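User: what does the whole thing look like in 3D?
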Amino acid sequence: MVFQADDYIPNLSYDSVIFGFSGEKLKILILEYHNTGTFALPGGFIRKDEDLDSAVKRGLSERTGIDQIYLEQFHTFGALHRSNPEVMRRIFEGQGIVMKDHWIYDRFISVGYYALINYDTVSPKPDALSDSIGWYNFDSLPELMQDHNQIVEKALEHLRNHLDQKLLSFNLLPEFFTMKDLQQVYESILGENQNRANFQRKMLGLEILERHEKLYSGGSHKAPFLYSFRKRKSDS
Amino acid sequence: MVFQADDYIPNLSYDSVIFGFSGEKLKILILEYHNTGTFALPGGFIRKDEDLDSAVKRGLSERTGIDQIYLEQFHTFGALHRSNPEVMRRIFEGQGIVMKDHWIYDRFISVGYYALINYDTVSPKPDALSDSIGWYNFDSLPELMQDHNQIVEKALEHLRNHLDQKLLSFNLLPEFFTMKDLQQVYESILGENQNRANFQRKMLGLEILERHEKLYSGGSHKAPFLYSFRKRKSDS
DNA sequence: GAAATATTGTTTCTTTGTGAAACAATAGTA
DNA sequence: TACTATTGTTTCACAAAGAAACAATATTTC
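Assistant: Here's the predicted 3D structure for the full assembly of 472 residues, as structure tokens:
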């Protein structure tokens, strides 16, 4: 599982910010390299014979088991000193792998992607080098290696700016959800409370929701409708 | 001037969409390789010892002579077959350079940037490989090599989406301009007419314009105010 | 089984913002 | 001096957004 130099494009990687929503909080997937105490975003390399997008999809599907993932590229990080060969070296040595020279120790420019996935239906798997992968609350992340904290910041910024246009939130929810669920997704991403009545009006006005029978819920109050989002032509 | 393999990151390039505004129309800079009839965006490669952003700035300043350029990265294009080695080979051979193998014939992933510059104060210079560089009306571009037309499309899309937030338009205007000038920039970028009264109200409301004395103009009508945009702390 | 409670779905009212038109001002022209 | 073209501003109508109030209902409590 040591990466063969000839198979991959050198000096170029991708890093992914994988968002999930637990029902209350926005979370992202973080890898941990136990022996080094290093936290990192899931990332990977691009084969010489594959599309950039395909490389990212491949990596995410390996880690999450999901094939149909909402993926968006948001920025490419190219500062000269963003990558630190010493950190990579420690990670490999923490795994018992000692290599004097390797293309992986070079300087890397990295393309940032974010993904939105349904938290409930995923059981993430660590990759070959990492010992664990897990969900972390977005508002209390550990310190990540290299510039990964900045990458996360930029991902959220992009997500916020495009939340309305792209109805991204749906990718974070299960098939059926209540209006309150949807509102909580918006609130956790935007970081501010939304007015309940206006939020409902706005969402229904978009004409993308399908209303179903009422939820037979356990709450001691009026049961909310369940919604799903309409299948569109563009969906495959 | 043949690029040395050891100096540059392989398989990675940048392409730049350089916007200018002639006073009426939105234009972009296009290179032409005469002997091949090929049109292309100005682009370049990244040295192993420089920031990605610096590489792009270096390239633009070589071509435009301007150092302080508004630059924004908008997308990285990574489709496997986006670059075509045959086209590159023809360009080199058109220059009388015949090389059997060269890293420049490899597959390239390219980072797209756009720049906004003041049309009047720039006299663009072609690079080593191209015979000419010139302004083309944005709405009547020639067919460009590889995926460069798509790159331009995506640049405009990004520019439109961020026009309000970032007040980008100012980078396209001379130091002093009228409200009508500013409105024409907006209209040419957005591709639709703006209401005159509301546009003025909106722009003044942003509190970023400084109003100066009236222009002593030649028009047979009330002379318009001249404006400049306020210097901000963040400017260096 | 009736009242109480919590939350949902909707409506109403107010405020704010936007689009279009009208009005007033003025530099040059006839 | 009147006329014309365009600018700067105001007004009006309408739509959107924010806040509060009202009505409906599933469960709990008495």
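In plain terms: The mean pLDDT of chain B is 87. The longest strand of chain B covers residues 8-21.
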